[in-house]
From TrEMBL:
Keyword presence, Heme: no
GO terms classed as biological process: L-histidine metabolic process; positive regulation of gene expression
Subunit structure: Homohexamer.
Gene: hutP
Taxonomic placement: Bacteria, Bacillati, Bacillota, Bacilli, Bacillales
A Pfam family it matches: HutP
Name this protein carries in UniProt: Hut operon positive regulatory protein
Length: 147
């Protein structure tokens, strides 16, 4: 059940998100037979961030929208990543904060044994702060869950 060093799903989700050359990274992920999507979202509402990431993952085939367990796994990975962004308080607009985020969703098996099954990772990077231009700072979050 060893976790393979070159298949660390969280590391790859962050690298995909922050990569200046995402095409090269996507080629590597294709070789692993992993699925991915990226996007951007800005909002004062956490539920809009969740919805944007879920919609992108469903539309691109990263998760099957007809299987509850896949949507459920993605939801928990998103909430875990949002915990990192918001420092443990998944609140944005209710505490007068707004986010401008890029995201990456990655699905694959990080283990050497294929029977371990797929996991999903969500990485978020961007800014958070008061809804006043120039009153924000950088932030990053990562969430990983088994499917």
């Amino acid at each position: 059940m060893a976790l393979s060093n070159d298949r660390r799903i969280g590391k790859h989700a962050i690298l995909l998100l922050l990569s200046d050359d995402s095409d090269e990274h996507l080629e590597w992920l294709k070789q692993l037979n992993w699925k991915s999507c990226t996007g951007k979202v800005g909002s004062m509402d956490a539920h809009k961030v969740v919805a944007a990431i879920e919609t992108a993952a469903k539309k691109t085939g990263v998760i099957n929208p007809d299987l509850y367990r896949e949507s459920h796994a993605l939801y928990h990975a998103i909430i875990e990543a949002l915990n990192g962004i918001t420092r443990g308080q998944v609140q944005i607009g209710s505490v007068l904060r707004t986010v401008g985020l890029s995201f990456a969703v990655l699905r694959g098996n990080p283990y050497e044994n294929e029977h371990e099954g797929d996991w999903v990772a969500v990485s978020l990077y961007g800014t958070i702060g008061a809804p006043v231009k120039g009153s924000e700072h950088e932030t990053i979050g990562l969430g990983i869950n088994h499917i």
